[in-house]
Recover the amino acids of this structure.
C-alpha cells in the first residue's frame, strides 16, 4: 500500500474502513454493487482516500 499523508494534519498512520449495505456504490451503467473503502487518518479521522476494491469491474 502506498504511503498516504493526511492533508489535514500531516499524519501518516491510516486505518482502512469499508462502507457496505445501503451506502454501497452501485448500478451506474449496470455496475454491480461494490463496497466503498476508505483510508482514514488514525490521528484526526479525515478520510484521505476512498476507493472501490475492483475498479476493473466498472468498465
Ligand atoms: Zn489527519
Amino acid at each position: 500500500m502506498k504511503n498516504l499523508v493526511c492533508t489535514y494534519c500531516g499524519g501518516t498512520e491510516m486505518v482502512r474502513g469499508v462502507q457496505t449495505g445501503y451506502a454501497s456504490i452501485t448500478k451506474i451503467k449496470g455496475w454491480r454493487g461494490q463496497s466503498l473503502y476508505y483510508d482514514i487518518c488514525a490521528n484526526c479521522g479525515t478520510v484521505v482516500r476512498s476507493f472501490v476494491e475492483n475498479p476493473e469491474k466498472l468498465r
Remarks:
- The mean pLDDT is 81.
- The pocket of zinc ion is lined by residues 6, 8-9, 11, 41, 43-44, 46 (CB under 6 Å).
- The beta strands are 14-19, 36-41, 47-52.
- The chain is about 0% helix and 30% strand.
